[in-house]
Amino acid sequence: MNLRGIVSVAGKPGLYKVIGQNKAGFVLESMDAARNKVVINGNARVAALREITVYGENEDLQLINIFENMSAVGTEVPDVKADNNVLKTFFAKVAPEHDGERVYVSDIKKIVSWYKILSVLPLWGEEDPDATVASESTPEAIVKEEEIEEKPKKAKKTTKKAE
After folding, report:
1. Where in this protein does the record put region Disordered (predicted)?
2. Counting C-beta atoms within 10 Å of the first and last residue's C-beta, which end of the chain has fewer, N or C?
């Protein structure tokens, strides 16, 4: 699943794709059927979906892993307007390690709505380009990284003033 460039904006419903950046902030395109373009100023809270985590009992859960679990469930994903207990039960199935006290029903509704938006898009079946780069760490690449880290720093030239 390729979530590169997909963001959520605080206070705005839905998801957006980053299509550019200017002096004022980001240029975003809504991921709904309208495909409206919006300029968001630099003060707005923008969160990349690939960086979002959900509170867990021991450690935070990556949103992308929850989406993968939801995909494995398939057609059993409830509607966003379903009863709160139905949503909680479903979320406990796809994210059993989540912290039930800190993950609210509104968070679950948001995740379900994001899943419904993303699951019909072509990027759902795409490979994440950053994940393939990370998994292709060859011994040569590791050696090159070590060589870069071990390069000595250049000494500053010092000059003495004539007395």
Report:
1. 129-163
2. C
